[in-house]
Amino acid sequence: MDLRRERVALWITAAIAIAALIFGVTQFRQVQKLKVLGEVSRQRAFFNLLSHVENMEGNLAKARASSTSAQRSAFLTACWSHSQAAQENISVMGMTTVDLSAIQKFVAQVGDYCMVLSQKLARGDALTESEWEVLARCETGVKDLARALADTGAVAFQGTASQGALSALRLTAPIPSDDDALFRGFSEIDSLVQSVPSPAYDGPFSDRALESKPLARPGPEVSREEAERIALNFLSQGQDFKTVEVDDISGAVPAFMVTGTRDDGSQVCVAVAKAGGAVLWAVDHRNVSGTQLDIGAARQAAQAFLDESGLDRLIETGWRKPETHGNRVVFTFAGTGSVAADSGPVEVVLYPEMVKVEVALDTGGVIGYDAVGYLTNTVSKELKTPLVSPTQAGASLNPGLVREGEPRLTVIPLASGRAVMAWEFRVTHGEDAYLIYINAMTGEEEMVLQMIIDETGSLTM
């Protein structure tokens, strides 16, 4: 009997050991899979970034070499478009140990400057000699950035400077990267772009406009413990983290940076304002396994999240799937206000008071949130009764346009950085759709945006 008990105990012990081994191997493989997926995402973003920077360089060169204002405007607009795409790839690279803000600022300013000059040419104005000189400096800086990115990629991912080999990598499985070389390369690039003088102009990414704004509605100071509680309950309610770190963020909006790390190594990062405890932004770096939800379900998830966060007065203004991540969708929402008119209160859409919500299409969970624009803008405090009625504004529209729906009153940011109140008209011309903004105080046309609606999003350009 004792021998039988010993054998049974031995078999049970062996079964437990085998089960533990299988569980350990499964967990190891899952972690390795997450690492591979992260590496794929990083390499794709890197080489897309390189491609867009190279295209920026090419369009800048063509703009300076072209002979007509129409051609120059087209090339400058194309440079701005590639700048937007480059910024998106910088934001999804996941380089947590290297500060990429200077690179992102440089790319944004070059694109923004190109758009300001393109709009100037479209108005029939000529560029000044100093503007051409600034454009030449931008081209030189972008050319140096493209070369530095190519050299960094060659060393970190390939070990060769062959541009053809770098291009081939974009379509193949990830090659193990040399993190030290990658981080060293980006540190050198950071120094490079900071040495390029910023263009002096009025625009949303100019140095003046990029000066951090304080909170529009600050509240009482919160403690580190309170900030940690707010952060961990914001995106990841009820989740356990292996470690939680709380750091300080200085600037115009002092904040606590709360970082929770899970057992699989993925992190949740949340910035909580010290004055009032509002969440400025949050990112969940978990792996998104696939696409299970459609855009309608994701939209409901985003709206429900805002409702639970006390932001139920926001209205959706657009959505898009990030270029390198088709299994998630980013919705943009704008704040609302009201002004008095003869017929009663009129709702105003406040585009500068922007909130972005990123939803994963596998579970519908929110994995990204940015409310800095909403929390730091004060346009809702500066609303005035419009002097131009929607009927008067509509009379200035091109008679060949077909209106869709009723005009709505908005506050829009201009390329100069100013915000103006304008009537928004949704119109079509043939198969193309546009948003046209007529200044609600002067009756002048302020902006025309073309709407691009496809499977990747509802965007304006």
Sum up the structure in keywords.
461 residues, eight-stranded mixed β-barrel, 11 helices, alpha+beta, Nuclear Transport Factor 2, Chain: A, 4 domains, 44% helix
List the helices and strands and how they pair.
Blueprint: H1 2-65, H2 69-91, H3 101-122, H4 129-158, H5 163-169, H6 179-194, H7 207-210, H8 224-234, E1 243-249, E2 255-261, E3 267-273, E4 279-284, H9 295-308, E5 315-320, E6 328-341, E7 344-360, E8 366-370, H10 372-376, H11 390-394, E9 402-403, E10 408-413, E11 419-429, E12 432-439, E13 445-454, E14 457-460
Parallel strand pairs: 7-10
Antiparallel strand pairs: 1-2, 2-3, 3-4, 4-8, 5-6, 5-14, 6-7, 7-8, 9-11, 10-11, 11-12, 12-13, 13-14
Helix pairs in contact: 1-2, 1-4, 2-3, 3-4, 3-6, 4-6
